[in-house]
Amino acid sequence: MFQFLISDSNLWVLFTSLGLCGIVILYYGMKLSLTTETFAEKKKISSSWLGLTVLAMITSMPELTVVLTSSIMGKPELGVGDIFGACQMNLIIIVLLDALQGSGAFSYQLRLTHILPASMSILIIGLAILGIVVTSITGTSFIGFIVLPLMLLAYIYGNRLIYKVEQLSEEGFDKEEDIGAIIETDTELLMKIILYGILISSAGALASLLANDLSVYPFMISGKTFILGGSFVGVLFLGFITALPEFAVSFSAMKLGAVDMAVSNILGSIAFNVTLLIVMQLTTTKGIFLLLLQAQNGISILIPAVGVIIMIAIVMMGLIYRSQKSFLQMGLDSFAVLLIYILTMWLFFEYSVHIAH
After folding, report:
1. Which CATH number goes with the domain that contains 230?
2. 18, 12, 25: which is closest to 247 by C-alpha?
3. How many distinct structural domains can be found in the chain?
4. Which residue among 56, 87, 253, 320 is buried most deeply as judged by most CB within 10 Å?
5. 3-state secondary structure of 260
6. Global confidence as pTM
């Protein structure tokens, strides 16, 4: 049985402040997503394309802020941890959607076209892992200047292919939107988008600063002193906080019956999140992969990164096999995704958290 022995109240202040940042990101992230969706409807953008690109980029704004802030602070492990932690949490959203929709596999209701963005995400993450591994072997940063442009090309070309598929699909446009019901002008909508973006960015920047303090904060469990470290705090805490807009958008889309838009937003956010490594590369001189590996236990970030690939692969298998069997009110594929998440987080804790006896 664990007994937490906290030396003072600062730890509770950190957690409370992080929670408040999460509330701000969730509330204004939802408003930002709804405003962006309204703007996209006026421009007659299809729901699937809206979820995959526009909403994916908008709901990833907290991750962008964390990435920039962590780079400025010289704590790349926080930003990279947040990227892969948010990717994991996005896939857990699919598990939650599956559990909420009742018996039967959630993937059975989804379109096969989701396989394309899922494949694109695996490709981009695979390139990122290649960059980290090669950098750890060579001790130089040259591979980043090769891998990161390839990631950007993969993202752009992948979205181009997805757009073509959506155009050819009979379900590319779900319905005609009642544009007349939208009374706000383009300027008003854009001003709201900017305002909500500023609020979310401010909360994301503050969350990064708080997470940096939490990463070096010593606390005791059963007589042992634990220091979580930047990688673990980034994956678990920042990953959860910055994924809150995707939670809100996905559950709202499911209530409206737009399950494909919800999954498109999730998969699109994963691909976009990993490309944020390019932003981190531009803000450093040594290269993001080299800086990451110089951080304490930075190499351990490969555990959640590989975990994301495995989780996406399971989702793809569910989309192709289309089994209707369920276990504990969720599809077998969703249950497998949940197990992989638990396993990777346990391994990540074991190899990333510093324990002083």
Report:
1. 1.20.1420.30
2. 25
3. 1
4. 87
5. helix
6. 0.87
